[in-house]
TrEMBL record:
The keyword Hydrolase applies. Its cofactor is a divalent metal cation. The keyword Mitochondrion does not apply. It comes from the Eukaryota. One of its GO terms (molecular function) is hydrolase activity. It comes from Poecilia formosa. This is Uncharacterized LOC103146169.
Length: 358
């Protein structure tokens, strides 16, 4: 019996030793994947590889439940940021922390527990990566820069409206309220909108596919949409749309010809069948901006369905980061769709100058 017990003990010990070797090898492989360049970078900090969210990410599992973005969108975001970290946690980990905070809408304390890092570090990472995203936003959120892109947008709006009269429409504009915590002080009530909750206004223009091509954010929720428009760079600079084209807007905006051509629906009561038919076609084309806001709110519902727990001066940067993530996700989705069903890629690299602003 003693010999049998010794043999069983040795067998169990050998199996356990082999298991520990495989476990250490797997953990080492994960550690190497966390490092961008092992030969040139010194070890500043060690990432805890037992954290479930990092294990799921580096084991090629689905990233949408944790970060609300596909793996292709994450890869493109890391490529656009292209930040070479000489110290700290590395660009990959910092981007994951930022995206998890953005996707979950939770506090810095919860994010610090999820990633196993100090709360002050999470605060610094979120603010730093947000500033980096804001700096590169024009690489994703931009106006049509070629005649081909402009004609594509025009034909798209004519198709949405089901009428050739809208072939000169090159955008749809609207505003969206982002919930915030009411700022303290005498001016806090200025942020309460008509629905009686504090917010900051995000004005956006989308193309016929629901991709945002221009954003302007920062005004308190009590300000009217027309006032926000008059102070926006889109209105003051008069760069877009080009001559002969116009942007669709709802009844909250004025119908303008200069400096920004805006076409709004007829006011009620409607006079005649022609006005009613025009409003119907107008609504079909303009509703793409409302659907774009709806898709963005669904993608980042934790941010839009509760108040942002940050200072109200930081909300415009967070809002721009949200639009950035949504546009790059939608761009990848549309490019895959077009490449499969239409046989070409819709992601183009336009020229540097607008043809109508030279």
């Amino acid at each position: 019996m003693d010999n049998d017990a010794i043999c069983c003990f040795l067998s169990a010990y050998i199996i356990l030793e082999q298991f520990m070797i495989l476990f250490r090898r797997r953990r080492y492989v994960l550690y190497l994947r966390l490092k961008d360049n092992v030969q040139t970078k010194s070890l500043y900090c060690r990432v805890n590889l037992k954290i479930p969210i990092l294990v799921r990410f580096f084991c090629d599992e689905d990233t949408k439940p944790d970060f609300r973005l596909s793996r292709e969108s994450l890869a493109r975001l890391l490529h656009l940021l292209n930040q070479d970290r000489r110290h700290g946690w590395g660009a990959t980990i910092e981007t994951l922390v930022f995206l998890f905070w953005l996707a979950s809408g939770t506090s810095y304390r919860v994010v610090s527990r999820v990633f196993g890092m100090p709360r002050s570090t999470v605060h610094s990472i979120v603010h730093r990566v947000t500033e980096e995203v804001v700096d590169i936003r024009h690489q994703v959120i931009h106006l049509p820069k070629t005649e081909e892109d402009l004609n594509s947008v025009s034909r798209g709006f004519a198709g949405l409206a089901h009428h050739r009269a809208f072939v000169k429409a090159v955008g749809a504009i609207d505003g969206c309220h982002i919930r915030i915590k009411c700022p303290s002080g005498p001016h806090g009530q200025c942020y309460r909108n008509r629905k009686l909750f504090p917010s900051i206004i995000l004005q956006a223009v989308s193309d016929h596919q629901g991709r945002f091509i221009d954003t302007y954010v920062g005004w308190p929720g009590s300000v009217h949409d027309s006032r926000v428009l008059r102070h926006s760079p889109l209105y003051r600079q008069s760069v877009y749309p080009p001559p002969g084209h116009f942007i669709l807007a709802d009844g909250g905006y004025p119908c303008l010809q200069q400096p920004l051509p805006l076409i709004t629906p007829y006011k009620r009561p409607l006079q005649g069948v022609g006005a009613q038919r025009f409003n119907n076609h107008h609504s079909k084309a303009r509703s793409i901006i409302e659907r774009a806001f709806g898709m963005m709110k669904t993608r980042f519902r934790s941010i839009f369905l509760q108040a942002l727990e940050v200072h109200h001066t930081f909300v415009p940067h967070v809002s721009t980061g949200l639009v950035f993530q949504f546009v790059q996700y939608l761009s990848i989705y549309l490019s895959i769709y077009l490449s499969i069903y239409l046989g070409h890629n819709s992601m183009c690299h336009p020229s540097q100058h607008l043809p109508w602003s030279r």
